[in-house]
Amino acid sequence: MTIQLGQVAPDFEQNSTHGPIRFHEWLGSSWGLLFSHPKNFTPVCTTELGEVAKLRPEWDKRNVKPIGLSVDPVEAHHKWEKDIEETQGARLVFPMIADPDGRVAALYDMIHPDCDPAVTVRSVFVIDPAKKVRLILIYPPSTGRNFAEILRAIDSLQLTDARSIATPVNWTPGEPVVISPKLSDDEATRQFPQGYRTLKPYLRIVDLQAGRP
Description:
Elements: E1 13-14, E2 21-22, H1 23-27, E3 31-36, H2 43-54, H3 56-61, E4 64-70, H4 74-88, E5 96-98, H5 103-107, E6 122-127, E7 133-139, H6 147-162, E8 165-166, E9 177-179, H7 185-191, E10 197-200, E11 203-206
Parallel strand pairs: 3-4, 4-5
Antiparallel strand pairs: 1-2, 3-6, 6-7, 8-9, 9-11, 10-11
Helix pairs in contact: 2-4
């Protein structure tokens, strides 16, 4: 199954380190971060899981629930959690899905046979409160993920959902944004009374922070 942006994330029920999880029910009204790991007790994955645990305040601030997945059984996950806490200095408080039959990995197309048919690649799915897939990232097993970029992308998604804007290249929170081409100049002036710069009719830049105390 190929997952595409905008489609509803496949629901599933699977065992995890927090007990059985029905995915959509577990997400509730939160955003979700579903990310897979090639296998347990691997070095890059250990560092990634530690980083996600350390970023708990950032996930909470954005109403994001992280959840990991590996094709190993839940007993192995619990043993691995101890290694992660010991080596990374952070305790996992989010669930890790046990997927020994590969059912969830197949649902989300996490196994790429040309890479290695026995392991999942490093897939990332950002899912919004409507259960729609909003971002997909796929890393090879040898390359650790950049969770600062994932947070930046979530910030962009949440901001642009709330306003008629888009975020330009290399944008970070607080920097100017792009006004949607769907807005007329009159509507743009109404929505952004602080003013904006027109570089081209289709390229209008606005500083959302302008005019704030």
